[in-house]
Design goal:
The radius of gyration is 27 Å and the shape is elongated. The chain has a two-stranded antiparallel ribbon with strand order 1-2. It has helices spanning about 10-45, 60-80, 95-140; strands at about 1-5, 150. The termini are close together. It has 3 helices and 2 strands; from the N terminus they run E-H-H-H-E.
Length: about 160
Amino acid sequence: MSTTGVNTKAVRLIAVLLMVAGVVLVAGGAATWITVRSQLVAENITIPDDAMAFAGNVVDGPLDAYVQADIINKHALEGSGGKTYAELDREDPARASVMNGSFLRASLFTSVIAFGVAAFAAGMGVLFAVTGYALRALVPAAADVAPRQTVGARA
């Protein structure tokens, strides 16, 4: 049998770094979510009555933004006889309206993605912080650590 010491300082340092990174990720995710939400609310977009859900709501979150993008597409297709921007003739008067609808949809989908990234960052932050806390709890301070014994191969 041989004994090897556990490098508690390194493990405890990594644990602290994980906890700090976790806090930073949660804060960054929350800040991103709040910023995107406040920008959407400032636009004062109200979901129309013929939307699939949330009729009358102000767009302020990822589901609202998705629903609004969907209804914009529906209205654009109705106005163009079912044709997309690329399918319309250059001289078609509906082309400008369909193009604006496409731009609005892209902007709303960008906000949906931003909400997703913010939630992912915050979730990873929680995971990092909990992992760091667990490492810190499992590895006691250096003075309390006894050498770890490992069983070597027998000749």
